[in-house]
Amino acid sequence: MIKNMIGFFLPACLALTAYCSINKPESGKPVASFIQAAKVDSLVAEVLEPGGPGCVVAVFKDQQIAFERGYGLANLDYGLPVTPATVFDIASISKQFTAACILILAERNQLALDDDIRKFIPEFPDYGPKIEIRRLLNHTSGVRDWVWLLTLEGVPFENAITRQELFELIYRQKNLAFAPGSDFVYSNSAYNLLSLIIERVSGMPLSRFVSREIFEPLGMKNSCVFDDRRMVVKNRALGYIPDEGDGWLMEHYFNPVFTGSSNIHSTLGDLLLWDRNFYTGDVGPPGMAASMEDAGELNNGEAIKYGLGLWVGEYRELRTAGHDGDWAGSFAYMLRFPDQRLTVLCLSNTHTFSPRRMCYKIADLCLAQWHAMELPERDRAPAPRVPVGADPSLYDVYSGEYVTESGRKLSLRLENEMLTGRFPGSRKFKLLPLSATEFFPEGDNATLSVFRDGAGVVERIEWRSGEKTTTYYDSPYKFSKYDISGKGAEYAGEYYSEDLRATYRIESADQGLVLKSPIKSRYMMELTGITGNDPLVALAEDSFRFAFFEIKFRRDKRGRVSGYTLIHPWASLRIEFAKLEFRQPGYRSGINR
């Protein structure tokens, strides 16, 4: 989607921002040469902008660095380049270090994976079923994720939120998302609780325990647990997001500093040392790598795609283990093929491209070179598309805001006689005409089609990428499947959640209902499409949707609407709201932070 920036790699620019090295192993044997460097440069050139934030890419083969290179800028204020020595926030890649710490303590018989977490955190609510440490490790505990709780409570991530406030939020939840072991739902809260267990068992902060037990023994001298927002981290890359024009905004200033789930800062070189440990076992109990890479199971014996701090699975019939990271302008992916002793890593300080997708594309190059595997069909160059002439006056008709059924937004604009598009949180892109109603994004294989009614008014927009087609309308109400005409007053009113300590208001508007919420985290609003002033799409009587949330209203014995359940389907989140006129004594209004 973003313009192909091959010019970014002119020699003078390359000398400033890129650097490549091929190391020799300690035994003196040369590392297998990586002949695909130019192709990696081309892949990165497609997604980065000159003068903007960048990334580092590395290939580890047989426990050595076969390729490492930095692209773009680590600091836009001073024009500092990204190099392999740049320190990145690796975000949720940190979870594997937390899991390793738990296994180290288990080997010393200071805890057991089957222990009830309330043995170490007695203040954690007693929900009835036992929650084992193992369930926290593989995201089957049912503990609700604070990312969604803070968002729905109306707390921006830019706010200074203490660790104690985080745990109070987790502890005051009336219910688990599901019975422990009955489902798999990713939960950052689970790993924050693990960090608390590590601290109470070891008698020291997680940052000190990780340093003493992992960083120092492995020689990871440029890694740290960022547990104080005042910390100075030498050579750190700052995170950035695109602004509304052609510039950038800093995104590295998120204030929650919650250890266990994220917040480790590291470099390519240090992560190689960690990667080697999965083969050498220098740190940790015997069999630690196998334990971490072993897929967890639900109570019914169903395997999940997560081990201990690692996603596990297969790619092209090869076993994989790895993790992604996404936080405060940092975006990262680490992909390991254990049986091939191959790891691909991409650490970035911008959200304008997917490090995960980058790693898999580079992995294809590696597998083609070293393991004689053909490149998949998707990586072969598509037939070129040639734009045609079109009437720019049509572009003004097409301009507007469009939305999917799940709340994902697309903006179309007429600019300098060109049609441009923009998704929330991404850079604006040019749409080149294939006909009067069909366009393609410059530098991308997707296709955008405009459908108009008999009067020439835009009826819908379709975005086709590969085999997936996404439909956009100019109003979310067009997705409604149930007519609530004359019934809006039944639902209108204020609703309060004790779990969130927040009040939401539902109002009746001309086209339907509108949910007014305290949600104001810009990061999550762009990620989810939530605005805090969201139309409710009617699905059936008492059943509505906004973004990817569902709202199920409930009624009392007299048929009056008395409250609703806010449901996040794939996060297994169910938050109860009571209509204020039916509230119980002891009601407290929402918290202002």
Descriptors:
593 residues, alpha+beta, Beta-lactamase, Lipocalin, eight-stranded antiparallel β-sheet, 22% helix, disordered C terminus
Write the layout of secondary structure elements.
Layout (H helix, E strand, L loop, with lengths): L10 H7 L19 H9 L9 E7 L2 E8 L1 E3 L4 E2 L6 E2 L5 H13 L25 H5 L8 H8 L9 H9 L16 H15 L3 H13 L5 E2 L14 E3 L5 E3 L13 E3 L1 H13 L7 H6 L17 E5 L2 E10 L2 E8 L4 E7 L6 H16 L21 H7 L1 E4 L5 E7 L2 E5 L6 E5 L4 E4 L5 E6 L5 E8 L2 E5 L15 H4 L1 E5 L4 E7 L4 E4 L5 H7 L4 E8 L2 E4 L2 E7 L5 E8 L4 E7 L14
Antiparallel strand pairs: 1-2, 1-13, 3-4, 5-9, 6-9, 7-8, 10-11, 11-12, 12-13, 14-15, 15-16, 16-17, 17-18, 18-19, 19-20, 20-21, 22-23, 22-29, 23-24, 24-25, 25-26, 26-27, 27-28, 28-29
Helix pairs in contact: 2-11, 3-7, 3-8
Describe the 3D structure.
The protein is of the alpha+beta class. The protein is 22% helix and 26% strand. The chain folds into three domains: 1-94 and 221-380, Beta-lactamase, CATH 3.40.710; 392-474, Lipocalin; 484-582, Lipocalin (Beta Barrel). The strands form six sheets. The protein has an eight-stranded antiparallel β-sheet with strand order 14-15-16-17-18-19-20-21, covered by helices on one side. An eight-stranded antiparallel beta barrel has the order 22-23-24-25-26-27-28-29. A six-stranded antiparallel β-sheet has the order 2-1-13-12-11-10, sandwiched between helices. α2 runs antiparallel to α11, α3 (95-107) runs parallel beside α7 (188-202) and α3 packs across α8. The chain is globular, with a radius of gyration of 25 Å.
